[in-house]
Amino acid sequence: EVQLVESGGGLVQPGGSLRLSCAASGLTFSTYWMTWVRQAPGKRLEWVANIREDGSDKYYVDSVKGRFTISRDNAKNSLYLQMNSLRVEDTAVYYCARHSSGWYFGYWGQGTLVTVSS
Amino acid sequence: QTVVTQEPSFSVSPGGTVTLTCGLSSGSVSTSNYPSWYQQTPGQAPRTLIYSTNTRSSGVPDRFSGSILGNKAALTITGAQADDESDYYCVLYVGSGIQVFGGGTKLTVL
User: Is the dihedral of CA B19, A108, A74, A115 positive or negative?
Assistant: First the structure.
């Protein structure tokens, strides 16, 4: 059974940093693209970033470019999201998701809440 | 940046049929956008319903179907049930490794 478990969320002040992790199990992690998706309170889902199987290519939504970095450690079956220069508008539940062939999200974690507030 | 459009809300009677659509600000949606659809209830992670335009994800009832209708992707629910009352999101691949969610449709069954 595929499991994705996010961690690392919490309360941070504007301008601060946070690193999210996603621990994957039940899958051959190194063979899948991975994704971060977020959802601000009461708002729509928003795609944040994709990373290729080997980490060689990374893609971001414009609003986080230069501030967020997606990465992975295939030896540890883990996905990460380093978030710097956080803004109030980055407040959201962050979900990690496993890509499947055909550009869709086949499995989802339960999410971790990031709150950016002074 | 590319905008993906969905109806903000829709209502359907129990047992009825409803079609939700997913459009692209820059033109027509095609199979090359790999439309996928997700169902989300409050406080829960999304559930994958449809991918690659019209393929149902494992365990999804066959009352859910996907298609291209005109210049948009579409999700049709046939024989709507009370527990289909949820938010529905489409996602389109727009190239260069980038994907975009629609604004979501809040479906009411009453």
Answer: positive
**A81 min Cα distance to partner chain B (Å):** 17
- State whether residue B34 sits within 8 Å of chain A by CB: yes
Question: According to the model, what pLDDT value does residue A102 have?
Answer: 84
- Report the alpha-carbon distance of residue B49 to residue B66 in Å, rounded: 9
Structure tokens at B33: 């956008």
- Cβ–Cβ under 8 Å, residues B39 and B88: yes
Can you list the residues of chain A whose pLDDT is less than 50? Answer: none
pLDDT per position as a tens digit, B23-63: 998 899 999 999 999 999 999 999 999 999 999 999 999 99
Q: How big, in percent rounded to 5, are the helix, strand and coil portions of chain A? A: 10, 55, 35
CA B54 to chain A, closest CA, distance in angstroms equals 11
Q: Which two tokens stand for residue A12?
A: 């941070």
| Of residues A32, A104, A36, the one with CA closest to residue B47 | A104
Q: Which of A44, A100, A111 sits opposite B89 (nearest CB)?
A: A44
A62 reaches B (C-beta below 8 A): yes
- Got the DSSP string for A16-59? --EEEEEEEESS-GGGS-EEEEEE-TTS-EEEEEEE-TTSS-EE
The pLDDT of residue A38: 98
Q: Is the pLDDT assigned to residue B1 strictly greater than 80?
A: no
Q: What residues does A51 pair with on adjacent strands? A: A34, A58
